[in-house]
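Q: Protein A?
A:
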Amino acid sequence: MANFFGEKSKVNNQTKQVFHFINEDKKIDQLSREVFKKTQIEIHYPIGYNGGSKYKNIMSIEFHGFGGKLPTGLIKSFKRGYGFTKNLKVFANYLDNELKINKISFVKTQENGIDLKAKEITLNEQTFSIINKSFTDLAKKSTQEQELESKVSLHTIFPKVIKKPETKYVSNALTTTLSKWGNNIDEFSAKDKEAIKDLFEKLSLNTNFLDPTKLSSTKQYIDNKILSDAVQDYSTLLSSTITIARLEKKWQEYLKINSWIFSSIFAQPIILFKDEAYVGGKDINNTNGKFSDYLMKNKLSDNVTFLEIKTHKTQLLSDKAYRGTDVYSVTEELSGCINQVLNQRDNFQKEYDHLKRKSKENFETINSKCIVIIGQHKSLTEEQKHCFELFRNNCRDVEIITFDELLLKIQNILTLKLKK
């Protein structure tokens, strides 16, 4: 008859059932588990491979209120000796060897607690679940990282008892992590992307870590990527079929995000100064105030520029000829937009002293330029194009740019960048 190997019930009364682990080949017979019947308490006594305790200091692991459904991260079988799973080996060693914990209690919802003098620690289910997830993510990483995670986790839970560990980068950790990257940007979380951006900025600006040639090449790649994305987003908006009101808002948002376009296409060091800026015009009833879609500013002279945006769907010229077959009048939308931006400039100049006194920022208005972005050039017939060019080239104080012309300018910048 084969020698017995397994758990045997040694005590079974109204209060509890007591199990022993028995391995007759190795002559092991020791307390392994207690299950209390009147209260939802179960106690494990981790077993070493050759008998005795599995850990140096941890003698027992208690579970309160789990009703037999024990937390993930702990061994539930006598065959593997109870205790912590492989993923939590470093965490268990920290509790065992560093903190010299004798008793670990897991509870459903009660508060976490630690008593280093009594050598006891209590962790609730939610907290332990977070710890287990952290170590599952770290399972394939270095022991040093897992040791640091042990200290960070317990310091977070018990900041007054466990000292804050010194934050130190573990050599080769980045190499190990990136070797598993599948070259898909979707694998990175928002936090990952922010960390990579911060690292790149620190290394490029504050150290000599990056070779200037490689840094220049990387910057060029990033610039090209930004331009390519801007062209793609612009083209998407040009094909949009949403309502005019929503579309105008979308264009305003796009140009706010890609405000670098202003400086690139207007051949001046222009920056976005304010969007939807108040430019004056209120009457005694505090109404009729004027707001510019964008107030831009020359970075060197501080001179402001007024920009009004309509949509690419806005009609430029009337469909029907005004005289004969080749004279067309501009639409109400175009003439109204021009008068609107001129009115904004006029109000701004009249109230310049008042606005400047109230502002904490520097700005000037020296024969300030007005710009209107509206419609599409390709929507015009050959006769209309001639009339449109006559009209806009005679608009002395207002520069009129169509949306498809603006796209072409951005595309030209991208083409020149790619040729470098």
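Q: Protein B?
A:
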Amino acid sequence: MSRSTTTTRRTSTILKMRSSFCYAEVILSISAKETDRTFSYAVPPELRDRIRRGMRVLVPFGAGNRRREAYVIGLSDATALDQAKIKQIERILDDRPALGEKTLELAFWMKEKYYTTLANCLRCVLPAGVKEREEGDLAKTVRYACLNAENPETAAFLSDPRGLGAAQTLVMQALLQGEAPAAGLKAALNISDSPLKTLEKKNLIRIYEKSLPDGPLSGARTYDKTPERPVLTREQENAAAVLCAGLRGKNPKPTLICGVTGSGKTEVYLRVIEDAVAAGKQAIMLVPEISLTPQTVEAFIRRLGDSVAVTHSRLTPLERYGQWKKARDGEVSVMIGPRSAVFAPFENLGCIIVDEEHESVYKSETAPKYSAKEVAIKRAEQTGALAVFGSATPSVESFRRTETGEFDLLTMTERINGMFPRITVVDMRLEMAEGNMSLFSRAFAEALGESIRKGEQSILFLNRRGHSTFVSCRRCGNVLRCENCSVNYTYHIHDDLLVCHYCGKRAENPSLCPACGSRFIRYFGVGTQKVEEELRKLFPGVGVIRMDTDTTSGKGSHEALLRAFREQKAQVLLGTQMIAKGLDFPKVTLVGVLAADLSLHTGDFRSGETTFQLLTQVAGRAGRASAPGEVYIQTYNPEHYAIRYAKEQDYRGFYEHEIVLRRQMDYPPFTHVFSVMFTGENEKRVILALHKLLEIMIYCNRKGMFEMLGPAPAIVSRIKRKYRWKILVKAKDEARLLAFAEYCVGKMREKAKADMEGLDVYMTMDPEFQE
């Protein structure tokens, strides 16, 4: 028998084996519960040698046979269904499976863990930009726009935009910074394609196709490579040695690093990741905020070069896809980014590091409401990788896991430069009593003026937490609280009422302080723009960079603003949470915290923890180089334990105080909390439906295993014309709690269909922030 005949027969046998998969089980890329099940489709003969589990396909679905993207999760050679009624797969969208076996396993786990649809989970683990597009089409070209410099009218319109629409003017101004992807422009400016087309017709801009760049790191490749490793401190050396040993072990236990600010945790992370890459493995490095990414990426590129990739939400969909594809194809070994980077498709994962692990942003606010920290632990279990969580202020839940034996603990108690900043707490009640009605205390204003005169840099942190407002007395510091739940009331300006967002209790807004009788009692709130105005009045001509949602909405804006501050183009950096942690500016010697009270009174049982973390982290930005640092914390509650422990930089003292309160009030980590939220355009119907759900829960809770709180309005009680109310259910057993909530909601859907019509239901286990 000839060699060619043997090869032909072998190939024929392989094709026969593959062609036996005549049917595919798929999950449609539709979020609805009604379609959250497998559907059977026939695989046409021409696709049978290509189709694999984990691939994306296009299928006809519904009465109109509308094309839908779907994920192949099973293949078989037979079906019990009527073959004449089975529709065929139209096309395969991937060259190779987009979803590996472990990724599919992870998605199934997420579906059960976070009470959501499998389609939501499968979409979540894939990068934006993939949906309903063939893999070969994703990496070709991107549509770019730039100013038409050859047209003399372009400059004329830039100086006098009369004759242009508002959106066209925005585009012209944005393109002054240089060319930009059209999709990115539309997203950043919140505009349609129309202004771009109109400007192109007027010959004021050019629109053209451009090959997809190497990715968001193409500019970063110009960084000087510095493979030299700094000399480690004793604590750094010990932490790196322990973690690298765990990296080489079998199924290592997750490890928590509790290290003070400036102790050199990033260098420890680098050593561990370098060790993993040297061993032929891959690593994921999670950072909590987009503002940290450029700084972290720079440090890693200097040491690891082209093996680093980055992903975050400000990249275009094609850029995110490009980074994901590099990870999947083995072109890079390290993925850095916020929450979504945890899904990097590495096949030989060595370690996952979660920096600033206490941050609530690691919990997704949209379905599936997953915790990147829990996903990291799951992925480490799947692959035998090492999971590392690091922070100067670990979450209470994470530190508790070191006491129960779930996590190992490493501590780093000394700063690299050996100097901690001097922290002063300023009682703003005394400032007011002595006639100072300014946003700045006299001591801080004097220190800031001195810093400016010396040419040093300062950070002003506005401790602002989203939409919450509370009522407090500026004379005595009293804050009105709900006696049922040990959290403060939230002020609802439209109703002029105080509401507890746990149990729903309401109270009148007093005109006089019930503690001291002062008339200086009102809801508290101040914005960064107001602070900037006051700052410029006090110090005319001072250079100020403001970082908030208004100034950081554009692509690359975080990096540009932080680079400008690092290059000392301004002496003062003013911002909210995004400047509070992880950033390292050697020239910063002074930090001021304005309104430390704001995060104390968010109506959340974690408010003390959040405040301690924020104050400790922002204080850590001062004096990180050779010059000593100073920190001023302005507050109306200087006696609060969170502020006292932050002043002393005493995490262990704070934890011991907080854990006692959590145990007394039966809050996590001693119990689990499940949130059931109903939303709808008619508030009365939303409230009525929740009360009926509560009746079902009370009936099903005859043994008293569960505690229900509410119904109560959400902190943001209306979004996009929809009212939001919720019930919180507490229990120690997570599995039983989930089963109880699912059963009760299912009964509600079954018995009260009319009441549920037009309402949306959102269910979250252990929300890390008050909804």
